[in-house]
Amino acid sequence: MRIAMFPDDYLPDSTLVHAKMFHELAIELKRLGHEAIIITPSHGKQAEHLKIDFIDDIEVWRFRNPPMRGQGKIKRLISESLLSYNSYRALKNFDKLGTFDACINYSPSIFFGALMHWFKKKQNAYIYLILRDIFPQWVIDEGIISPKSPLAYYFRFFEKLNYKSANSIGLMSQANIDYFSKFYPHISNLQVLRNWADITPYNSSLDRNIRKEFSLENKVIFFYGGNIGHAQDMGNILRLVKKMKVHKNAHFLLVGQGDEVDLVLKTKLRDNLDNITFLPSVNQDQYKQLLLQVDVGLFSLAKTHKAHNFPGKLLGYMVQSLPILGSVNEGNDLIKFINDEGAGNAFVNGEDENLFNAAVLLFKNKSYRIAAGLQANRVLKESFSVEAAAAQLIETIGKK
Questions:
Q1: Which pTM was predicted?
Q2: Mean pLDDT, residues 243-253 taken together
Q3: What b/e sequence results for 107-128 when a residue is b if at least 16 CB atoms lie within 10 Å of its CB, and e otherwise?
Q4: Residues 6+ apart with CB under 8 A from 117
């Protein structure tokens, strides 16, 4: 089959987990004999309406679109709102467009729905929506916008268009399907599609020795990589950082971008947190090199979340056999999953003392760190391989 894939960000510059996931999926689809083409925004880096390049022999079509992340909320909204229009403008007269058997759309963003509708109507393409954040519901849950605000109605319009265009919608857990169905009981084309990763550990010589660069040679490094935003509740991580100051050889490394970067930097300065280092986003090879040099993988989700997400960053930690530590919203089945599998420790966001005690255990007990990391890697191999995800997608699309 000929399959178009639509991540809103992509390699080599993106550190977002779904950019890496889509690349791994494209490679696996190609290995299975399909033609997988990535169609993704340029984020303001090109003059042409459409530019083609190749990464690991995967064909990438980049359409011109303004940058989205790190631009402020208004600029990001405008840029994301233009995704379908600018991609349609670049593709409609493109002589290599041809026809696609299927389109794999990823949400967030919610703004590819109109383009998916066009592919479905014009080419009879099968549209598979990989739904990871139920937006705008989570920003309503967070109190960031009112459910009756014009902005909420604007987002809801595009959200519904996104769902309407999809032949199938894949959510990351049964708990998320149950939650989604409370808002959209009439939508029945749902299935569980777990996150995935290439389970081959990264092994390379270091271009950047982070321990030497920041004098962390004898430290136990707690690492957080990815989006640093409201949905992740970085205040939760920062409370742990403050409590861990008493342990001089424990250090926190945060890498990424998002709308709570200022919170991290201001809190570090205000509270004199010399046990935390922040780095802006790095490319995927650099990110993987960082994972080779750290000891514990951190994650966090806001306690006001109602959806039950499985943060994609955990898969990167598990590939490198890192133990997992973090907290999520109440009722999230990720807590039971991590704790029962012995892959680390997970708690409800707000259980600060439990989180702190687990961090101390991981800091002090190297054998426990190693054992939990090995368990995390075992679980990854059993349940989260890219081969399983690709097989499920092909089976679903093939039923059209």
A1: 0.75
A2: 97
A3: bbbbbbbbbbbbbbeebebbbb
A4: 161, 164, 165
